[in-house]
Every structure is written in C-alpha cells, then in structure tokens.
Amino acid sequence: MSHNAELGRRGEQLAVEHLEARGMQVLERNWRCRIGEIDIVARDGHDTVFVEVKTRTSGDYGHPFEAITPLKLARMRRLAIAWCEATDAPVSRIRIDAVAVLAPIEAPALIEHLEGIN
Amino acid sequence: MPVARTRSVALLGLSGSVVEVEADLSSQLPAFVIIGLPDAALGEARDRVRAAAVNAGCPLPQRRLTVNLSPAALPKHGSGFDLAIAVACLAAAGEISAESIERVVHLGELGLDGRLRPIDGILPAVLAAVRAGYDTVMVPAANSDEARLVPGVSVIGVASLLDAAVHHGGVYDEREFDAVPAPDRPDPTASVDEPHGDLADVSGNDDAVQALLAAAAGGHHVFLLGPPGAGKTMLASRLPGILPDLEADEALEVASLRSLSGRPPISGLSRRPPFEAPHHTATAAAMVGGGSRLIRPGAAARASHGVLFLDEAPEFPSAVLDVLRQPLESGSIAIQRANAVASFPARFQLVLAANPCPCGNHGSKGAECTCPPNARRRYLARISGPLLDRIDVQLRVPRITAAGLRIAAERPGMSTEVARGRVVEARARAARRLRGTPWRTNAQMPGPWMRGAGGLHPGGRATADLDRALELGGVTMRGYDRILKVAWTLADLDGADIPLLDHVGRALFLRKGLPL
Question: Which end of chain A has less neighbouring CB within 10 Å, N or C?
C-alpha cells in the first residue's frame, strides 16, 4: 500500500471514530460505484450523511478543505443520489459533510468537521 | 461571533462616504467572497488579505468568508479597504474583539508580507470619517502624520495587520514589523511650491506691482500682457507670497486635494496658498481633473484657495481655457463620468500671461514686430471674450527701460512682507464691510447687489468718468461693475472709507489698460 493510501485509510479511521464519538452511526465505508467512491456514509438522527474525508500530514500544501473543489462537491452529490438509488434503507434527508484530518507523523491528529457543505 | 462589522471610507472626488464592511463566517468549504460593487483592485483584496493574514501571523479561518461593503450601490475602488476587510474577517472568526473594531474607521492597503502600505487620499478620507461622527481611525504608520492633521480625531498608526489585530485584543505570538516608509516619489510641483522670491525683486514696474497688490487684496483675476522678458512670470510667481495665510479649513482643503493627487504624504499643514502653473500643452482633463474610476483633481482644483497661473495663455488650446469658465463662475468643478459625478472645489485666483503677438514684440519700443496684423489679432482672440470678461485686472507690462532701472536701483521696491501686510489690512476692511453676507472679498460681490441692496455705489462725482464711459458704450454694464469692485479694493488698500475719483480712475486704468 502506498504511503498516501495508507495515510488516507488512517485518516478515514480517525474520521469514523470522530463521527461515532459525536453519536453518528456509520452505515458504510468506501462505498464504490461506477461514478466513484464515497468515503463514509453515516446516519445522524433523521439525516443520511455522506462524508468526504481529506487527510494531510501538514498544512504545507494548503488546508485539507481547500482540496475539495466545486467539481468534487458536484460529484459527491451525484454519488449521494447513486447511493440512495442503490440502498433499501429509507432515506428522508441527505447531507454532505467534510472532515479534515491533519495528522502529523509524531503528534496527535487534528480533526475538523464541516456539516452540510454546499 | 459569525458576523462582524467595521467602517472604512469610499472617496469620490473630495467627498468621502463611510462604508460599512461586514464579514460573515460560515461553516462551509474555504472561500473568500467580496460583494458590494468592488472594482478590480478591490476585488483582488481577496487574495491580498488572505496571504497577508497568514504572513502576518494571524491567519484567517479555513471557512467561507463573505465580505459585504455597504451601501452596496456606491462604487468603491482601490486598495484602501484591505485593512477593514481583514479586521472584519478576524473579528468574525472570533480572533479579535468585534466590539473594538465596530466604531473604528480602518484605512490602508495590505502587502503580501502582512505590512500596511500607505494610500493616497488619507486626509479627505479621515475628514469624511470625522464629519460622519467617527472619532477613531486606524491608518498605516506612514500616513499617521497626515491623518493627525484633522482636528478632533484620535489616530492609531499601525505597521502591520498583526499590530492592528493585537490592538483590537487579539492574542498572537509577538513579531516585529518594519513600517513601510512613505514612497519616495519626487514631487512634480516641488519647484513651484518653493518660496516664490520676494516682490522687491521686481524692479521698475510700479504699475504692475500696484495691480498685483490690488489683485491680492480684492481676490481679482489678472491678465498680464507684455513682450517676452518684461517680467510677467516673475510678477505672477510673487502673487502667492503676498496673499494672506489660509484659514484652518482652507489649509485642510488644500492639503486634501494634494493628498488626492498622489503626491508624497503630507507631514504638516501648510498655511501658504498653493501655486499651480500648468504647461500650455495641458489637456482639459489635466486642467479640471479626470480619470475613469479614481477621479483625480486637476490643476484648477489643486490651485483652490491659491493661484492658477497660465503662462503663454494663447498657446493653450481654447477648449482647455474655456473649461475654466465653469469653476470661475461657481467656484467648483463637477466631473461627470459613467459611474459617478465627482466635485472638487476650485476657488482659485486666475493669472493669465500673454505676449501681445506670436513674435512678442508688438507695441514694444525699439523692437520690430514681424507678425502680420491678422496673425496678431488671431493670437489674442484665442482667449475667448467670455473668459476675458471675468478678469477684473487687465494690464500691459512693458519692458523695463534703462532709466527705469536706474530709478529702481535708487528706490527699492516694496517687499513681499510689507505688501502682504497691506493686503491683509485691505482684506480685513472688505471683510468688515461685507459682514453678514456670504462674500468675503470684493471680487466675490455680485454687481447688482453692490449697486442695489449692498449700497456700495459711491455715487456723486467719484464715478462721473465711469458713468460717461458707460453712456458712450466704452464699458459694458458687467465691465462697469468690475471696475467698481476694483475701485473698492483700491480704496481698501489706501484705507479710504469709500472710493474717490482717484480710485475709480485707477480702476478704469487697470481694466482698460489693454489696447485689445
């Protein structure tokens, strides 16, 4: 596994722990379809939440959130619809969240969570 | 606090409006949006502010920041809003006190290194802030002397965005920034702003000195006609020296116009009247002011409360001369552009100098004029009648003769200091007489008021010659009024209560001294 993929998995694991600590129930991780991949699908009360996780070891290449471009966001929306069509679970409201994990090699990770980005 | 607001100033001409700068922080993907009619330079504040904040050591949050400049309909331009935008964003992020920035007007441009750069037009902007009821301004360190010229305002000069943030209660690692110094721009008018030489240097031209004295005392416009080398330029450059010191508000207005012209920042308030001498290749825009977005004052506006000297007046394009008719009449200049109308004060004293013909020798003893009569007539006709009609003192300046030089050597001329003393006295007499009216100098009195309600027609024998000239068609009614005004000025200079026959006679000479 490459360094980046490993970092990505570590970030996603930290994000899942963060979401669960906030009382969200993780339904699915790394859900794939023809269009692409959703990092985390979770349930927060009545909301179905689709989470994009971005992990960096430092801020040298910009804030993790800066990597979420409008194009990426548009794909997230299409993916969310694709997931809803593929699932049997009832879906009332959907939300797209972003989680930034700043995970330096030898220091505790810093997690930021944006709810309902658009 | 997700929303924070502070104040800045948008300048349009010399008048500024206070602009509210609001910043909203929302939990969205990082973005920076500026709304409220910004121009290109202001739109770029987005990138300047974010980079400056990082490099100053007080980074903005990685969230969506929306900055609104209201009133949104007012066009805003330039980089002077950077500081206000940056502190509003920091306060929205909760890094600094939103209460502290609310009543402070912030002015200044940010460099990418986080230091504050001085901007043009600080003085009029601070004046506008004070008039709108704000008493604290934060400006770049290099502009703080200029901002302090405005009475009744407390000025906070800051070197960097970090200093500004710390002042408003931000807690950051301490860092030292060298203040950006004022730009070392050469002042294009430095040579004419120097002391203008003494009136005593003018030798053997008593008539012209008397005319200059009358012009200074009454605020009359002057037209000097004479061959090259007669000393017209020398005379004109002595006029600002014998004018009285400016009042505090006038000096502030003069300094504001200087500040807007992109000259080096002002450190002290000069009480001396300005002197502007545009070259005869000047365009109409250079004369009254122009520019498409940032409207800058022209020579006529910069000469406000001082002297506008047009040497070789017939060489100016006639369209350029005629744009002066509006400011001569109304004392202000309105510049219309697609997005706005800017207005500048323009209460200057006009001094025109001209040669009598293209070769310059017409009418001089011992020198032969080589111009055909037609060329001579056309030359002076370039100064239009309506413009000439507004000039009270019109005088021929002859070349000095050897005999005149000898007499002058024995009897030194009046010094600038003595002359200014007489001018101040004469102006005080006129001001006492005009108390309770909107006018302060004789030149400003409207003719009908002077003859009618003002009761300033001397009547009787004093104006007998003038009345006859009017009857014979030698002077027009407007010319009659102007001669009367100059007569009052001459009476003021002599300390007389009312113009006598002698004063009217001399006024007639000063008006009709030109064989045009």
Answer: N
